Predict the structure.
Amino acid sequence: MSEIASAAGVSRQTLYKEFGSRDEFAQALVIHEGERFLDAVDAAVREHLDDPRAAVGAALGAFLRTAGEDPLVRILLSDDGTGGLLPFVTTQGMPVVEWATARLAATIEDGWPEAPRAKVQLLAESLVRLAISHVTAPGESPEATAGRMGELLGPFIDEALGV
């Protein structure tokens, strides 16, 4: 926190007053950085409003590509879990999951307003959890992963979004 306060040009006390604790600061940082990823997801969804399966595939692909190219994510993934940010998207990740789910659900609801809210929530949360899982333990390329997940979720996407 001392290094962060120094770099920001504020006192440690100011940082603690604003964020409460080191953990709360880290969580706020993860969510702040997550905004960029979800901006890419939102844009990908909006480009495919005529095809929900393509929208989900493009959104997941955009998220995974953006995360794979991000220096902060690389640092996060190199963490051994003993003091870095990794726990804030894994073992202590519920606030991030809830925030990202709400943001993604809002995007889906904007694109497909007739979709039942419960199914939108289930789809959004499932996609968020899948995305985090694939970022923290990557396998295939973002495109291949997105394609496979789109294929797996396709029937539910059709049902949930009324296609």
Notes: Helices lie at 2-8, 12-19, 22-46, 52-69, 71-78, 94-111, 117-136, 142-160. The CA atoms of residues 5 and 11 lie 6 Å apart. The chain has one domain: 23-160.
